[in-house]
């Protein structure tokens, strides 16, 4: 009934404290645990309810009576403690103790049928309290988000000597707030006590592994003005479009008007919107344009 790790990558610890009991504490814990999981926002596949069934037999004859939701005295003096748990679609667990030599198939069948009626009644009352798991976990709970990336891109996310992954953690609140774990199959687990920092880390990782395509539009800061090594004349500007991806805006792609010097139009740190005009995957170069997003001159 618990969600798969890919959908809910948490370790779940349930504690049931029984303060007083005159019945089945395990079945009470089963029902209470279902309610607790749903209230905590755990996306369980089906709610589970449980009931403890008992049996009293007449040793002098074949007469017997099946009891529903047995109390302590009925458990102590009776001949059977038959616990049944399950959803509206079937039984998920049973556990039985008997004090007699055995149970007939008729008793077992009647017990399960009687238990189903009781379980459905209990489940109905539970769902009247909370009909489904909450849409999100508590705002105070640590956020664990799992995404899948191409295993060949793991090195890009980590960076040389862990430079990139440490940068992401630092920009998302530091180690006291966020942590990132990566499995060999490309599963990336982002944990954070701050939902916004978790979202930011995911966006940064997705940006790192994203493939840049011609025609896409990005916004990023100018990080460098490029000059020709021979003539020293400014020929373009480098724009950071993704956390680990940069592209160049040639001087001819800055504006529809003639530009004599790149630095007269663009400054380091200035945020600009650019369009991808070309991608050379072999050389790792991206051609960008600012003027492609400007209105065309009449």
From TrEMBL:
<dbReference type="InterPro" id="IPR027408">
    <property type="entry name" value="PNPase/RNase_PH_dom_sf"/>
</dbReference>
<keyword id="KW-0808">Transferase</keyword>
<dbReference type="GO" id="GO:0004654">
    <property type="term" value="F:polyribonucleotide nucleotidyltransferase activity"/>
</dbReference>
<dbReference type="InterPro" id="IPR003029">
    <property type="entry name" value="S1_domain"/>
</dbReference>
<dbReference type="InterPro" id="IPR004087">
    <property type="entry name" value="KH_dom"/>
</dbReference>
<dbReference type="InterPro" id="IPR036612">
    <property type="entry name" value="KH_dom_type_1_sf"/>
</dbReference>
<dbReference type="Pfam" id="PF01138">
    <property type="entry name" value="RNase_PH"/>
</dbReference>
<dbReference type="InterPro" id="IPR012340">
    <property type="entry name" value="NA-bd_OB-fold"/>
</dbReference>
<dbReference type="GO" id="GO:0000175">
    <property type="term" value="F:3'-5'-RNA exonuclease activity"/>
</dbReference>
<dbReference type="Pfam" id="PF00013">
    <property type="entry name" value="KH_1"/>
</dbReference>
<dbReference type="InterPro" id="IPR004088">
    <property type="entry name" value="KH_dom_type_1"/>
</dbReference>
<dbReference type="GO" id="GO:0006402">
    <property type="term" value="P:mRNA catabolic process"/>
</dbReference>
<dbReference type="Pfam" id="PF00575">
    <property type="entry name" value="S1"/>
</dbReference>
<dbReference type="GO" id="GO:0005829">
    <property type="term" value="C:cytosol"/>
</dbReference>
<keyword id="KW-0548">Nucleotidyltransferase</keyword>
<comment type="similarity">
    <text>Belongs to the polyribonucleotide nucleotidyltransferase family.</text>
</comment>
<dbReference type="InterPro" id="IPR020568">
    <property type="entry name" value="Ribosomal_Su5_D2-typ_SF"/>
</dbReference>
<dbReference type="GO" id="GO:0003723">
    <property type="term" value="F:RNA binding"/>
</dbReference>
<protein>
    <recommendedName>
        <fullName>polyribonucleotide nucleotidyltransferase</fullName>
        <ecNumber>2.7.7.8</ecNumber>
    </recommendedName>
</protein>
<dbReference type="InterPro" id="IPR001247">
    <property type="entry name" value="ExoRNase_PH_dom1"/>
</dbReference>
<dbReference type="InterPro" id="IPR036345">
    <property type="entry name" value="ExoRNase_PH_dom2_sf"/>
</dbReference>
<feature type="domain" description="S1 motif">
    <location>
        <begin position="215"/>
        <end position="291"/>
    </location>
</feature>
<dbReference type="InterPro" id="IPR012162">
    <property type="entry name" value="PNPase"/>
</dbReference>
<keyword id="KW-0694">RNA-binding</keyword>
């Amino acid at each position: 009934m618990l969600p798969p790790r890919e959908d809910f990558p948490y370790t779940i610890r349930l504690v049931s404290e029984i303060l007083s009991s005159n019945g089945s504490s395990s079945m009470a814990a089963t029902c209470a645990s279902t309610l607790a999981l749903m209230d905590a926002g755990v996306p369980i596949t089906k709610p589970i309810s449980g009931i403890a069934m008992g049996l009293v037999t007449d040793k002098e004859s074949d007469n017997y009576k099946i009891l529903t939701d047995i109390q302590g005295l009925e458990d102590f003096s009776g001949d059977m403690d038959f616990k049944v748990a399950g959803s509206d679609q079937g039984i998920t667990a049973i556990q039985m103790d008997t004090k007699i030599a055995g149970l007939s198939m008729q008793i077992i069948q009647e017990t399960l049928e009687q238990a189903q009626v009781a379980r459905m009644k209990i489940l109905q009352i539970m769902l009247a309290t909370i009909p489904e798991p909450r849409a999100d976990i508590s705002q105070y709970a640590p956020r664990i988000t799992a995404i899948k990336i191409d295993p060949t891109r793991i090195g890009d996310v980590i960076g040389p000597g862990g430079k990139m992954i440490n940068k992401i953690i630092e920009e998302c609140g530091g180690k006291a707030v966020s942590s990132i774990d990566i499995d060999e199959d490309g599963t990336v687990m982002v944990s954070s006590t701050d939902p916004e920092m978790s979202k930011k880390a995911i966006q940064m990782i997705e940006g790192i592994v994203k493939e840049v395509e011609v025609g896409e539009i990005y916004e990023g800061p100018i990080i460098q003005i490029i000059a020709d090594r021979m003539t020293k004349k400014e020929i373009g500007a480098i724009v950071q479009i993704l956390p680990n991806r940069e592209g160049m805006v040639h001087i001819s792609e800055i504006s529809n008007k003639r530009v004599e010097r790149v630095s007269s139009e663009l400054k380091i740190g200035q945020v600009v919107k650019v369009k991808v005009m070309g991608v050379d995957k072999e050389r790792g170069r991206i051609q960008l344009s600012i003027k492609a997003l400007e209105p065309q001159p009449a």
